[in-house]
Specification:
globular; alpha+beta; 19 helices; Creatine Amidinohydrolase, Chain A, domain 1
Amino acid sequence: MIAERLTRLRAEMERRGIDIYIVPTADFHESEYVGEHFKAREFITGFTGSAGTAVVTAQEAGLWTDARYFLQAERQLENSTVTLYKMGEEGVPTLTAFLRDKLPQGGCLGFDGRVINAVLGKSLEEIAGEKGGRVYAQEDLVDRIWTDRPPLSAAKAWVLEEKYAGRSTADKLSDVRAEMKKAGATIHLLTSLYDIAWLLNLRGGDIDYVPVVLSYLALTETECLWFVQPEVLSDEVRALLAQNRVELRPYQAFYDYAGDIPAGERVLLDRKVCSYRLCDALGAGVTVLDRPNPSTRMKAVKNSVEIENIRAAHVKDAVAVCKFICWLKKNIGILPMTEISASDYLAARRAEQEGFLELSFETICSYGPHAAIVHYAATPETDIPLRPEGMLLVDSGGHYLEGSTDITRTIALGPVTEEMRRRFTMVARSHLDLAMARFLYGCSGLNLDILARGPLWEEGLDYKHGTGHGVGYALNVHEGPNGFRWKQSPERSEGAVLEEGMVTTDEPGYYLEGQYGIRTESELLCRRGEKNEFGQFMYFENVTYVPIDRDLLIPEELNERERRYLNDYHQRVVEIVSPHLTEEEQAWLRAACAPV
């Protein structure tokens, strides 16, 4: 099937004189996850992971993806004629190096300019220019062969009330306009669905697990134009827009609007988010101010109302997860369970919570060797029974009116090996050491990541993913610009200073291919601590309230500070969560949180 699709795509390429065609994982808005209509890379390769870029030449096809998906991609690309290129691995060419090598002199690079950001598009232009060639960016060739392609989503938009958002749409628009004025911008073009949803206090359902509305926005000192499909608008949404003098325009009219911006205007946009086609549409006399959207940092720093709501959301989420772990521990080996049925049980407990909207991402419920696949998600074909032995890794979360959650716990289902306990304890130490951080204001996650990796690096071990990411408020669960990483990569911009009010996950892990995987994840709220002659100190408040499995810990390997923090944390978990549990569940929680 994949080979046949590639043959048809190559025929379209040949008709247009295209030597290499690039298919990223992207929509028109550089969203991390995309709706069904935009899954062109999945269609052309068969790889279902959320990150990857396909490259097709007349003779070969390749897929570039990161370490989270190596095992999954190897399995899904088997017999597809698509070669896996493991990004960041020694000896593996980068995407751009591959293109430089394969593009013939005078050749043509093709891509849909609406799904390639302007920064990448410019670099592709340069590669073609080096060979005396050209780019062909005006057409989506996959659309030519995808005869049963799903239509654009048009789910209903809804208002996130100010009691949840904490600030009015008017105030947010005013703040962004103030930043535009500082930058000397006369127009701000906004294509990020997360930023638009935050700015307008609106949510939707156009991407699974991400409550956003397909749309664009243009802001001037006096106008706010929202380019959106009219069928998604309710009377309540229209009333909010009218109250804030937001004018409606058709979704498809945005590029025409951009092309008509007169010479002399100064347009603020982020080339890493805006598409190549959009930037190409701007007239020669338009000045582009290329910088991050002001709303990116604004939405990352949660206001006081959001912070209180986030704590409340995590209590609800902890109740659901604690009920799940209690049920799992008491019924493993008694009731039949599989990865999918266990995941469904957890989802049902979340759905019982007041204010629950939907899951914040597809649950990772992985048993035994499956847990070594970092982003494994069970399917009917891969689903396996759970047995009263070994470990189960569950990475899950929910969107609530009060915010979004992301938590991972690795759970003993029965007897485990001593090696598993040692590795689990090492990961627990990594998790605790970062959660306990005290640091001077001005640090970023790049400064602090070593606190988490230290216990593993001491043993010559590592995990091939970031230690943490920012978390949106009923938005994308992966939100920049904050994060924890040990090195900066060109694909990411998570080196921002950690500000009070930012929420970042803390999720070190360890994975042994073919055997097991371990990860422990909680969310950390950045707080302001003492200020003295050395400067302003910061610390983290752990807002995830679920025990770390003592059945897997080796207490003697924790140092005194780690042991004290863990015991204090577990005491807080009991105090916060117990009132919402049954007597049986309370008894389990007290035992699970007993001092080590």
